[in-house]
Amino acid sequence: MDIIFLHDFKAKTLIGIYPWERIVPQTIQIDLEIALPTSHACQSDNIADALDYALIIEKINEILATHHFSLLEALAEHIAQTVLTEFQSPWIKVSVAKLGIIRGVKKLGVRIERTSDAISEIRSHISLVNS
């Protein structure tokens, strides 16, 4: 499996459960490991066979600008589902952390790992529940 990674991506966003967190942007750090849909890029040297890092970063910036999440877990899940669905990745690991929010703690966060199979199972379950 071929994996691309994006480490130490920092951005400001509104996230949290407290009233002040709904108005004061916080710095978060995002780390991603994303499986490529195929290994063809190694031989072809063509971006069409790879994942475009710039498009992934653009999509994450869009999510951060247009959504407010109460929990880091929800943000990580949204990023994972978006990458799996929109970029056809079979697997992703997402880490999201708040930086310097608690005295004495450099960062605190969550790490999740998802597969495209898991997304299909969730959609099937939702369809059954809504039927």
Automatic annotation (TrEMBL):
The keyword Isomerase applies. It catalyses: 7,8-dihydroneopterin = 7,8-dihydromonapterin; 7,8-dihydroneopterin = 6-hydroxymethyl-7,8-dihydropterin + glycolaldehyde. Coiled coil: none annotated. GO terms for molecular function: dihydroneopterin aldolase activity; isomerase activity. GO terms for cellular component: cytoplasm. It comes from the Bacteria. Residues 4-114 form the Dihydroneopterin aldolase/epimerase domain. This is Dihydroneopterin aldolase. It comes from Nitrosomonas ureae.
